[in-house]
Amino acid sequence: MKSLDKYKNDPVLFAEEVLGVQLKGYQKVLLRAVAKGERIICARRTGIVFVQDAHEHRQKAIKY
Known about the structure:
Blueprint lengths: L10 H7 L7 H12 L11 H16 L1
Helix pairs in contact: 2-3
């Protein structure tokens, strides 16, 4: 099983390597903010739902 330790502090790396997605620059900023627990406000069509899903998958993966 692949070690998930390197993803604990890097949600963008998790999204790209584990989930296999290409994030846009602003989505990387959003994902890092969400991972830090920061409150963010986004306009429509920014991909925030996707960013939240990626964050949740990472949280579940590194929990165990």
